[in-house]
Amino acid sequence: MTAVVTDQLPEAVRLALRWDPNRLAADVRALSDQLWRNQRAYGSDGAMPEVTLDWKVLSLRSPGGDPGRTDPGGAGMVGFADTPLLDRCPTIAEVLRAIPAPLRSARLMALGPATRVHTHRDSKCGLPWGRLRLHVPVITHERALTVLDGREWYWEPGQLWYGDFNRLHHVRNEGSTTRIHLVIDSLVTPALVALFPEEFRRSLPYAEVVFAREPMPLQEWEMPAMCRRFTLPAAFADWAEEDEHAGEPDLPAEITTAGDRLVLAISGGQRLALVHLGNAEFRLEGWSDERSLRLDPNGTTVLRIRIGRTVREWQR
Asked: Domain map of the chain by residue range?
């Protein structure tokens, strides 16, 4: 795995927002009639098989607002939206409104008693990729632990926490009751970073952070000139470590229109809507500025993958 500068920062910190844990717990109780679904991971080609652990999810925000999506989502054709369940959770809705950054998924995640999730990394999750995974413990106890880089953390209920989940980590519940966290995925903005402790911010190399840029409109008449066919690097079409694709041939790809937006269509059936960032540069719908395309008027397509200041670029 590629080393990143932020590996030298603390693996977890408490952020400067807090809510009444009793009100949060009341929101969870209001959903007691709902069927919690098995946790499901996400790959670049879609959702992966459900896990068999006692690790359940209720989705409050998901791709297209689909309550059946328990995965964190990824690049695709639809953006993230609230699910109908959020209407029944006024305090959690208040939490989400308070996060000063574009939100992706928001899930209630329940880890059953005597359950341990395997050690893993959350790929491309962290400040150098422009995507954060934040936690607000709702119902918990001191034997429900998050373990990052071998260090055990008990996170108090009602508090907003940041963890660097690109590092090796696992969660485990050694108690006799279920642990429930609100897990929020967001993009990164200066206002969100301002919630981090001062000591963390003093040590943070801001040049290594991929900050979210505001989407910019496009006129419908501008789009036809941006449509084109080209070949796409295999690394750009997948979310595994990029060097795994060294030497692989390019894939046929095409920029087309779908209604009022541009779409990247990749050989094999993958379709990714494009979000304009200005100057004919686009990120992928549902993703951060980690991956972008610039559609030059001379027909050249510039593709970029970023990890902090490190940029891998192709021209086609």
From this structure: 5-206, 220-315
